[in-house]
Amino acid sequence: MAAIHIGISGWRYKPWRGDFYPEGLTQKRELQFASRAVNSIEINGSFYALQTPARYAEWYADTPEDFMFSVKAPRYITHTLRLNDVHGPLANFFASGVLELKDKLGPFLWQFPPSFKFDPLLFEAFLEQLPADTLQAAALARQHEPRLNGKASLKPHGTRPVRHAVEIRHTSFAVPEFVQLLDKYGVALVVADTAGKWPYLEDVTADFVYLRLHGDKQLYASGYTDEALQRWGDRIDCWRHGKQPADAHLAAPQHKPRARKSRDVLCFFDNDIKVRAPFDARHLLARFNLDKHLATAPGKLPEPGVLP
After folding, report:
1. Strands 68-72 and 105-111, bridge-based pairing
2. Which domains does the chain have, with CATH numbers?
3. N or C: which end of the chain has fewer CB within 10 A?
């Protein structure tokens, strides 16, 4: 059966302290705590700046064996350069330490700004450069710019597929040509719930489905009701069985996803402002009995030194 990963986007938020995180928990132990309350986390610090091999290695060490990270790719590539002349920056990113996540490395998230319009030629040129496995990622990393000499991570740490997901925020992407392009390269189209602010699409274009739930009423703030979480759980159940919801909102209704008996599903809550994300994630994990091997409840992890 396909794997289901449900978690949060980032973990270092001041309002969470004393609510999701218990009083007295040091900032250094927040990832240890969060990774035992959910089974997957998006790393979003990588969106704002290149991280370091040591930091990725530390995150690997701080999390359980069966944990999975998603890594948000640099905005320098997607927002500043807007996919123009990105070979060097791509090499720098893959050399920055992401491969130190080893077997806990999940998909890379490529998020584009609302002002970025669909350009088929530019976008395909970008997709062609994305590594399909860790060997290709390491080969790309070795082409990093000189400023990373002596500070790069270049080992593949085994051979595993590398997955990619794209989150768009401009209506020009809601066309069959874009869906077909993602399907050609096996890249997932992010199902993004943005309180109606940006396009909502559910076209399946890869061997996995990637969801980002930013809030259904108020962006980044509103929590999800039991009814809403039930609906998301039903959709996740459908996708993981290789199917598509009957009422799926599609940019390419005629496009038929490649037949699969199952698909992995990753779902991240990004409604963090009012401390809803970790609790909504826990609720949805319970729907699939995925909370059983995690901590019994937020705020009830073992004392330092005896984390499971």
Report:
1. parallel
2. 4-287 (3.20.20.410)
3. N
